[in-house]
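Researcher: I'd like a structural prediction for the single chain below. Treat it as a standalone chain; there are no partners to consider.
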Amino acid sequence: MSSTLMKSVSGIRGIVGDSFTPELIVSVCSAFAKYVKYGTVIVGRDTRPTGDIISKQITSALALSGCNVIDIGIVPTPTVEIMVEQEKAAGGIVISASHNPIQWNAFKLINKDGVFLNSTEIAKVFAYMEEEKQYKPWNKIGTINSSNMGDEVHIKSVLSVIKTATVKKQKFKVVLDAVNGAGSQITQDLLEKLGCKVIPIHCTMDGTFPRGAEPVPANLKDLSAAVIKHKADIGFAQDPDADRLAIVDEMGQPLGEEYTLALVIEHLLKKEKGPVVVNLSTTRATEDIARNHGVRFFRSKVGEINVVDLMKKKKARIGGEGNGGVISPELHHGRDSLAGIVYVLEMMAQEKKTISEIKASLPQYVMVKGKVDFDPQKIDLSILDSIAHDYSKERISNIDGLRIDFDEDKDFGGGWVHLRPSNTEPIFRIITEGKDGKQAKKIYNHFVKLFK
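Model: Treating it as a single chain, here is the predicted structure.
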């Protein structure tokens, strides 16, 4: 199998026609059918051009393996999670490579609780993939049915956790950039139910990505321009499967996807106190906010299910990942851009402030994210041990790569660095944060030299 196949708790990802092949699809579906004990499986996908044909093979392979399949079509990843719970299904499969480029596709595997498989569960699926495939006789195969209820169920669930009347009174003007992805229509429907005037851009569900798939500031120039042109109150940007959310303020300035989660944490802790869980790569602003509210704060390994597992263990009020991934247990245990949208609009409505004013009231940090191509034969990860030794007086975490919080270093003090191989791409991620852009860049430049 090609080296581009990525297998982790974030799913199974590859380049279509290279490592993502018909043989792989059959292998994964046969294994997943055995894992869910041939129960009902919810299948959904994003808008990628390869999604339709892959979906047909997946549903067929699952049915031939003995599963009953409910195909809910093009939907956000969190919609599949919610529908697994709604239908009391045995599991779910999302066909989406999320932020990866358009030539990629992937399986995201969901268990009966509506959350991604953890490391133990997905290891079991990987083991089943190595076994001989088993199919049912002609009179014991499963069924394939379609449902268009996913959007309605998801929207109803999201609206149930906020005071919709408060938001409706404000009649917000919102620009939405859904990167022509799965969030294009459902998010417009949600915003209209909240009384918003919606200006959609990049909301044609044709599978092309008119900008980079990740909702990072560099990819949001069109959104920023549209917010200014239409004098909108706020701009929202999603990734192709709509589990991540980024924000542009009323002046057309991207807040940085890290501040999506920070805003939601601030809002929800004002409503009700409780523990906060984020991953190791998430901004220190979230830690400061938790401390200001007097609640416990925890960090997990990177990966949605790692955050979710720790959230459940700590009975977290709110959590997520700094890539724009909001996880709200009062809704469901999964990253959800629609949840982020309703919380942010409720926050603006209740505080009667612009989004730039609210953001300015939060702890301020600047992050620099970079990456280098990752080839295990070229990068010796024992370098992380050497780096940890050099900074042994600082706060060290090695539960996922290496994170160093600098307290003693005269140049880096108050900042941090996280060094780790990606779960989703053949790259090595280098993330730094500082009290300002100069410090963040200085930390980044120091560490990137070690890997180049």
